[in-house]
Design goal:
The protein has 538 residues and is an alpha/beta fold. The chain folds into 3 domains: 37-208 and 320-433, 3-Layer(aba) Sandwich (Alkaline Phosphatase, subunit A), CATH 3.40.720; 215-221 and 229-316, no CATH class; 441-531, 2-Layer Sandwich (Arylsulfatase, C-terminal domain). 36% of the residues lie in helices and 14% in strands. The strands form 3 sheets. It has a 10-stranded mixed beta sheet, with helices on both faces. Strands 13-14-15-16 form a 4-stranded antiparallel beta sheet, covered by helices on one side. A two-stranded parallel ribbon has the order 3-12. Helix 5 (116-122) runs parallel beside helix 13 (402-410) and helix 6 packs parallel to helix 11 (305-340).
């Protein structure tokens, strides 16, 4: 009996020691019953067309593609409001803009409200946010934050580390990645699951590339989309924009034609001069060595009309895609770290953007409209424990769904106030039934780029949009027959029944998400007051 007791005590002590050793080494494969880590990667204005996994052949993004190869690619990822800060507020809260209060880039964001990071933090996760968030105030829900103020800068950027402003030399995309890797290696507690928001500034305007990619795409002549010279026939609201590459893109601010002679005096020249002046002498020398010959040739050629429109498109595409190449490099560094440290199996990795972007479609850059290229956003995700490599998702998900999805994976209760839905079982293949309509709103007008206020509903095949405020215009599209949204069929008698059906769906969406004309008017009045506009028609 005595020997049995001694054996039992020894066995218990040995087992406990082994369990203790395992619990203290979460980086090692074989961890039992650990909540999944979450690495949520978000870039800014990254068009799905500019990720090679989507098949548009504009560029090559091998590291972002790895997420799709090892997991899932979503062909119908959408946002609820295609503009930077509101999109991020929706992502954090799981609530539409009119509910979380951040309807535009002007209104403040209330950090005191619930967000998914707070819920995970309370549940034992160590949480960190690094990079761009574009929401004023100290981020809540994060044990560590090191974020860009406002839009951030490409060269020698300022950061706010846990509330303290600092400047870090270097290129913002690499700096952001270095901060992320430092947190993973040196700052996190390795006995806790972690949530890491890794948010890049690029490829946001003004698309200033990293030196190592200055010459990338020099030998490529980009062919503009078939509707690059769109005449906006049948689409009144589209015609009034101020986001045309040919008409509105600033040759200095956007296309880097900052000539030393100061002959190219454009509306936004001084704003780009400020960005250029952030560079140190070594950075400026490298920049000038590449761009000065391009500036000289541009001034000599004196392009006009169609030739100028095509030149501007190519300059835009080159720099835009170059900034993405650095983003892809950073994704590769983080994926490599996870793999080398035995974290891959138990880590959810998501790559997305705060919205889509126009790469010449309809002649545009920027976003804001409910048309597909800005409404739709890239979304790739991997989690080896549940998601099969090469999974393709064709159901409509939105940035509204990130919060409940992450909470679902972590085993944390999803509060009733959250309006999104967890797509965990959708991506794992456990369910096939899913929503058949999504809702969109855009509020920032009068404002930059002159995109009218609008809201709308999209189903798998049709899209209904209502432009309002100083106009009252309805648009209807058959996405199966007209995927580029060139013909407004709202008044086409052949679509009378479809029009009625879509109006019904729109009202259902507004009722479901708690939106109304009264709330729309209230948000309009708040915006006009913040902008100092008295006459609401100006």
């Amino acid at each position: 009996m005595k020997n049995k007791i001694i054996f039992y005590l020894a066995h218990t002590i040995l087992s406990g020691s082994l369990l203790f050793l395992i619990s203290c080494q979460p980086d090692k494969i074989g961890v039992v019953d650990q909540a999944p880590n979450i690495v949520f990667i978000m870039s800014d204005d990254h068009a799905y067309q500019a990720i090679s996994a989507y098949g548009y052949a504009l560029n090559n993004t091998p590291n972002i593609d790895r997420i799709a190869t090892e997991g899932a690619i979503f062909n119908k990822g959408f946002v609820t409001n295609s503009i930077c800060a509101p999109s991020r507020a929706v992502m954090l809260t799981g609530k539409h803009s009119h509910i979380n209060g951040k309807v535009d880039n002007i209104q403040p964001f209330n950090w005191d409200q619930e967000n998914f990071a707070k819920a995970l933090q309370r549940s034992g996760y160590q949480t960190a946010m690094v990079g761009k968030i574009h929401l004023n105030g100290l981020p809540q829900g994060f044990d560590y934050s090191n974020v860009l103020p406002g839009q951030g800068q490409y060269y020698n950027p300022n950061f706010i580390e846990n509330g303290k402003k600092i400047q870090i030399p270097g290129y913002v995309t690499q700096v952001t990645t270095d901060i992320v890797l430092d947190w993973l290696k040196n700052k996190r507690e390795k006995n806790k699951p972690f949530l890491l928001l890794y948010h890049q500034k690029a490829p946001h305007r003004t698309w200033m590339p990293e030196e190592k990619y200055f010459k990338l795409f020099d030998d490529k002549n980009f062919t503009p989309p078939a509707n690059y010279f769109d005449d906006y026939k049948t689409r009144v609201a589209s015609a009034e924009h101020e986001m045309g590459i040919y008409k509105d893109m600033d040759v200095v601010y956007d296309l880097k034609m900052l000539d030393k002679e100061e002959e190219l005096q454009t509306r936004l020249r001084k704003h780009f001069q400020n960005q250029y002046d952030r560079m140190d002498s070594v950075q400026k020398k490298a920049w000038d060595a590449y761009y000065d010959p391009i500036i000289k040739k541009f001034k000599s050629d004196q392009l006009e009309g169609k030739d100028l429109a095509l030149w501007k498109f190519n300059r835009y595409m080159q720099d835009y895609l170059r900034t993405i190449q650095s983003v892809d490099d950073g994704v590769g560094e983080v994926l490599d770290y996870l793999e080398e440290n035995g974290l891959t199996e138990n880590t959810i990795v998501v790559y997305t953007s705060d919205q889509g972007f126009y790469l010449g479609e309809h002649g545009w850059f920027d976003k804001r409209f409910m048309y597909e290229e800005s409404f739709r956003t890239p979304l790739l995700m991997k989690y080896p424990k549940e998601i099969k490599p090469g999974t393709i998702i064709d159901k409509m998900v939105q940035n509204l769904d990130f919060a409940p999805t992450f909470l679902d994976y972590a085993g944390v209760e999803i509060e009733k106030e959250i309006q999104g839905e967890s797509f965990r079982k959708l991506v794992s293949g456990e369910i096939s039934e899913w929503r058949d309509a999504i809702y969109y709103t855009y509020y920032e007008f009068p404002g930059e780029h002159h995109v009218k206020r609008h809201y709308g509903v999209r189903t798998d095949r049709y899209k209904l949009i209502h432009f309002y405020y100083d106009i009252d215009v309805w648009e209807l599209y058959d996405l199966e027959k007209d995927p580029s949204e060139m013909t407004n069929i709202y008044d086409d008698p052949a679509y009378n029944d479809i029009q009625k059906m879509m109006h019904k769906r729109l009202q259902e969406m507004r009722d479901k998400y708690g939106d109304s004309d009264e709330l729309t008017q209230s948000n309009l009045e708040r915006y006009l007051k913040a902008k100092g506009i008295n006459d609401h028609k100006k």
